[in-house]
Write a sequence for this structure.
């Protein structure tokens, strides 16, 4: 294959995220609601009997199914299932920046308005509690930042003899900033805090 054929063939394709087909894709909704004539952000506390992350605070959302026409459809579907509201209650959906992680996850966050929040009936199978935080509080509150240090540990069958340095190879240490927001005894951290901080930064 000559070089011109290679270039012409590559010109026909649209660049994607390398390995995108293997990523576990999810979508979440950052819900805006009106409470006492103020804009609030709605959060869920995961049910304590959930297998993954019981009791953690999160936004409505979940894995993208084959039936979902796009990530936005997933965010709406998951929100309706978890909060017991019709899709017509969710309006003005706007995408935020999506997140890709080395652990094989890709998350599509959206902001939207939930009308008539008084009609919410949480799904007890997934949601232990629903609460809101005033947007004004979040706009005026900086999150606490704490670091997590990630260590590289090669598998026992890793071919160290094939890389320069072998057992003494200088693996790069990584740090992750974890953000923490606290409001009336509730702790918002992890991916939820990252998405929240991104949203707050955009609207400031």
């Amino acid at each position: 294959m000559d070089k011109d054929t290679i270039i012409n063939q590559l010109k026909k394709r649209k660049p994607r995220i390398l390995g995108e087909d293997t990523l576990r894709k999810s979508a979440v909704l950052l819900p805006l609601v009106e409470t006492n004539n103020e804009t609030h952000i709605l959060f869920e506390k995961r049910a304590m009997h959930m297998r993954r992350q019981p009791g953690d605070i999160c936004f409505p959302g979940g894995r993208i199914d084959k039936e979902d026409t796009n990530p936005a459809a997933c965010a709406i579907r998951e929100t309706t299932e978890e909060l017991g509201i019709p899709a017509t209650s969710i309006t003005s959906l706007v995408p935020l920046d999506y997140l890709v992680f080395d652990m094989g996850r890709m998350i599509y966050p959206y902001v939207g308005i939930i009308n008539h929040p008084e009609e919410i009936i949480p799904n007890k199978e997934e949601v232990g509690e629903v609460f809101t935080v005033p947007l004004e509080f979040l706009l005026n509150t900086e999150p606490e930042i704490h670091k997590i240090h990630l260590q590289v540990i090669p598998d026992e069958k890793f071919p160290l003899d094939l890389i320069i340095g072998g057992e003494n190879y200088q693996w790069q240490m990584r740090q992750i900033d974890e953000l923490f927001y606290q409001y009336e005894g509730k702790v918002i951290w992890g991916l939820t805090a990252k998405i929240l901080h991104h949203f707050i930064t955009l609207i400031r």
Remarks:
- The longest strand covers residues 24-35.
- The helical segments are 3-11, 71-83, 135-139, 190-203.
- The first helix runs from residue 3 to 11.
